[in-house]
Amino acid sequence: MAEKKFPKDFVWGSATASYQVEGSPLADGAGPSIWHRFSHTPGTTHDGETGDVACDHYNRYKEDIKLMKSLGLKGYRFSISWSRIFPNGKGKINEKGVDFYNKVIDELLKEDITPFVTIYHWDLPAALQDIGGWTNRDIACWFGDYADYLFQ
Asked: Is the pLDDT score of 1 beyond 90?
């Protein structure tokens, strides 16, 4: 059998989702997401587990990124929590949430790890779910505003 090799430009990395690793889902002005609400509903998770602490990436991102570096990872795909940026899903921006993701990106770049950002990983702000969520036609504009803000 011939030896197979990855292309030279292949990026070895890791991936996470905000609610699964960050913890502190309501810290610094963030709003609840549908996952936060779901996991806090009695009977929905094993032993009442929630993402309140998770891997505590919100507080330990520097340590986590150093671990990524030590493993030789060149990329990190992570998601941004919409409700950490827009606590109500739209309207007022939570600057502390923006600062968190900027610090994560800066730290990744400092360690020569390419950030790959997912802007939505199934964690809709609960406030938007309360007014119809993805069945509300206005969500296209709300998501557009969120995406536009992130890309700016």
From this structure: no
